[in-house]
Amino acid sequence: MTYGAIREQLAGELTAIEEAGLFKRERQITTPQSAHIGTTQGPALNFCANNYLGLADHPDVVAAARKALDDWGFGMASVRFICGTQTQHRELEREIAQFSGTDDAILFPSCFDANGGIFEVLMGPEDAIISDALNHASIIDGVRLSKAQRYRYSNRDMADLRSQLEAARDADARRILIVTDGVFSMDGYYATLVEICDLAEEFGAMVMVDDSHAVGFVGEHGRGTHEHCGVFDGVTNRVDIITGTLGKALGGGSGGYVAAHQEIVDLLKQRARPYLFSNAVAPSIVAGSRAALAIARDSSEQRERLKHNAALFRSLMTEAGFDLLPGSHPIVPVMFPGEDGARRATEIADAMLTRGVYVIAFSFPVVPRGQARIRVQLSAAHTDDDIRTCVDAFVASRDEVG
Ligand SMILES: *Cc1c(COP(=O)(O)O)cnc(C)c1O
Fold this sequence. Notes:
The protein has helices spanning 3-19, 59-72, 80-83, 87-100, 111-122, 137-145, 158-170, 193-203, 225-229, 262-271, 273-276, 283-298, 301-319, 341-354, 384-401, and strands at residues 36-39, 42-46, 104-108, 128-132, 149-153, 176-181, 183-184, 189-190, 206-210, 241-245, 256-260, 331-337, 357-358, 360-362, 371-377. By secondary structure, the chain is an alpha/beta fold. Pyridoxal-5'-phosphate binds at residues 110-112, 115, 136, 138, 181, 185, 210, 212-213, 245, 247, 256.
């Protein structure tokens, strides 16, 4: 077949995406990532980044990355096990483990890769993986890559989790692994880790938490959802495996990790394919991420600011009559329920951008039908004035769209 025929097929797929209203257009930013950004369509207040602690352009993080270019060079040009491990890679892994309350940690090129690599290594055909229905795409793909038996439970439904555990036990699974996001990114809801750890104990299962939307800022010391839920008290940690990203709160550069028991980390270093066959994280990213982690670990300033910002936004929006999903997380879904919701959410988000406030609307199939929303993400980089500007833009855009 020549490309001519294939071109037509692909063009047809693109048209179908467009006609379904699902075509993603990228807005181009002309500045560093921050609360106030420039775009090719003018300046904007940014309320849709995962820059929770405002560290993406923090001077200490940038300075550490810049210095690393001089001290450590630009690239590694090697996977970790050949000649791609600098002393700072191991330092970062130890620091992540210490912060997470685990024996050790292993860096991956991304958290997508961490989740892509782990299941195949740990879970074989005689094992069972029990996964929350709303888990991140990378967990779904990683589970698919393993030969383990698969079970799924409804989002945060502990009765269903129990049923699935019973099914796995009845099927004589050798090892059982419960896997959940720490925070569900479309809702800002936390996993119910006390109940999950209790069930795991009862059934002799392991617990894995993907804490990408939590590490650095959730919990009293920012150590994650396990700290927030009280299954990690700084010493005892009831979660066996934590995956996370350096691409969100911790500077937002790139890279991901698995923090876990020693044997799990050691085995992943031997067998995890994205670790063995993909380039080591770049030196400047390692150095910048270490600086970001140090800020998250040693100072509560950004965390307190973020908490204040999320609470302020939630209270002003509620006062203005908007329908929010309840909670405390800096992911704040502003709901537009019903038949007409998807259109209203999209039009309001567009109207807000013309007022210089950048937010994103989500509708089916990303979220359930009839539950369209604008997902607002607060950052420690926002000021009270930024938040009031955002709320004012919501009110004015609602009035305009009707
Ligand atoms: C963002 C995210 C990832 C992917 O992280 P990357 O490091 O960008 O690949 C994985 N899991 C969850 C839950 C996420 O939110």
